[in-house]
Amino acid sequence: MEEEKDIALITAYMEGTLSGNEKNAFEQRLNSEPDLKQMLDDMTVLKAGIRQAAREEMRAQLQGIESELSEKENIKPAWNKTWLKVAASITIVAVASWLLLPNSDKITDQLFAENFEPYPNIIMPTVRGGQDTDSSLMAQAYRAYDQQDFTKSIGLFESLEKKDEGVLLYLGNSYLASGSPEKAIPVFEKVIMDYEIFDEQAEWYLAGSYLKAGDAEKAKEVLRNVTARGRSYKSRAEIILKKLN
Amino acid sequence: MDSTIANIRAEGKEALADLYKSHRSAFLNWVTKFGCTRDEAKDAYQAAVLALYENIVSGKLTVLNSGVKTYLFAIGRNKILEMKRATGKLLGTEGLENSLPDVPEEEGLGDPQQLKRVALCLEKLGEPCATLLKEFYYHCRSLEEIARQLDYKTTDSAKNQKYKCLARLRKLFNEEKIAFR
Hints:
A: 245 residues; mainly alpha; 11 helices; B: mainly alpha; globular
């Protein structure tokens, strides 16, 4: 068909694949054949329209990906955040002794044992008598924490891709409980530096980490901050400070 | 060649999702600091990803001197500034200006009304024409690749099909034009 032949010529012209001679011949025809010129104009519009339609299709695809991603972001963390805030508003001053430690002469060890225990799991408490149906890593991590299997809870908390301040607080506690205060310290510091809602608890356990690590000076420094904050842990902190001095 | 570029050239639109996810959070966090809403930021980022994609598949972009992230940020930044300029709210965006390279703007394609009419005709045209034309003109796949994708025996038959599709599309478009008058 003539029309298709012309279309072939026009598209070749638009794509710049005509040779010099072909191009000259084509341009001469354009000058003398208004129908051909019209066809070229149409093709230019059609090409742009095709591109636009495909671009919108791609944009819709990206929008689809975006909706999925925002849904994930919105539902979970929003729930978590509210929960975390509620959880954080109840500062639990856990005073019972941590774990039965071998007797130690070191005052820092003693003070640690007398004043600290792992912060209770108020994020995802294990339901007593209920079935543990939530198999998410997060749920498994808190369950291990409740069972005082701290090696396991460390592994699970560490494997969570998104670690919010709640996760970090319990990760720090897991390290501290498993006898690695030096690993707990940076975690608590992060909770204090990068987030807001668990500062009070994190500071308290940071002090505990320094005690456990035997660094009385650092412990005092942090405990003074705890006292200055003047909240739930204040009186405990003052007692420890007195004994350290 | 940059690995992202090579990847997108090889995989075409299949690589788009990963590209989109790769720098999304960083970009959204960055621009929302400059008083953009989350939705504006998302629009800008989508435009940036598409522009990068288009420039890569069309062969306009073969080297990413400063990396994918910088490039996406630069296009996205332009998009944000454009939106802000349109609404006269440039306040607070000063920090967006500096330290990013200049990049080409998103390619404008022409009169939106007319483009929309072509899109409608393209829908009427149906398959396989619609896919063939979009693959060729937007995704810049070669006729060889298209022949493989759409099961044509030879590259030439894909080529002939392309001419036929264009002729039919033009006919629809002109009928539409008359109907509009």
